[in-house]
Amino acid sequence: MIRAARHYIYLMLVLIAGLVSSAVVWANDIIVMSSTLSSKATPSEGLYLDINVEFDLPRSVQDALNKGIPLYFVTEFTVEQERWYWVNKPIIEASLMTRLSYSPLTRQYRVSRGGLSLSFDSLSEALAILKSLHGWRVSDESVLEKPDDCTAEVRVRLDIDQLPLPMQVTIGENDWDLTSDWQTVNFDRSITHPKDSAQ
Predict the structure, then answer these.
(1) Residue 72 parent element (H or E)
(2) Are 187 and 125 in contact (CB under 8 A)?
(3) Is 65 helix (H, G, I), strand (E, B) or coil?
(4) Which 3-state string (H, E, C) describes 117-186?
(5) Parallel, antiparallel, or unpaired for β 31-40 and 186-187?
(6) What Pfam families does the database record attribute to this sequence (predicted)?
């Protein structure tokens, strides 16, 4: 009876440890919640990407930010045409930098992206903007040739190469390893059925 109880307790401890480990991995990961590529004529003709991500900033990263160290997040996007007889052909490659900073003097957070900057009183407000990217023009072309043969992928990561050099040497790798997996992007009907969308 006692041996069975000990075995049950051991199994529960293993299960709890696994759950805690999974929670830590989730906390240090960037998760792509949704992403869509669409063709638009305005404001400028081209292909536009919408993406929403979710993540938590580890405590050490928040501490550095609140001390005035800016953080740089990179959104990377690719479209490749699949070829059975050779390696895939790159069609589109684009990247966009988003800068998150904090001013101890004004006690405000600032999000800068594509020449635009917004200030916020709280980190949660700033992160809400950082995690949502809409209307990013990734291509001047509004049509993909043979879209059914193309694969689009996106990922978002914290670029530690933008940190001050002394920090790059001393930071803990796990806390600062904020990145998403490459996520397949959905094509809007305006790309896969351009004639239908024009009607």
Answers:
(1) strand 71-81
(2) no
(3) helix
(4) EEEECCHHHHHHHHCEEEEEEEECCCCCCCHHHEEEEEEEEECHHHCCHHHHHHCCHHHHCCECCCEECE
(5) parallel
(6) DUF4390
The position carrying tokens 């928040």 is 62
pLDDT for 199 beyond 70: no
Judged by DSSP in three states, 7 sits in helix
Cα separation, 187 vs 122, whole angstroms: 35
pLDDT confidence bin for 53, thresholds 50/70/90: very high
The residue type at 36? T
What digits encode the pLDDT tens for the residues 88-118? 889 999 999 999 999 999 999 999 999 899 9
Q: Where do we find the tokens 């996520």?
A: 183
Instruction: For strands 183-184 and 150-158, give the pairing.
Output: antiparallel
Domain count, the chain: 1
Distance of CA 118 to CAs 4, 85, 136, 141, Å?
60, 48, 17, 29
- Residue 188's domain spans which residues? 2-198
pLDDT, mean over the chain? 83
The residue written with tokens 């407000």 in the block is: 125
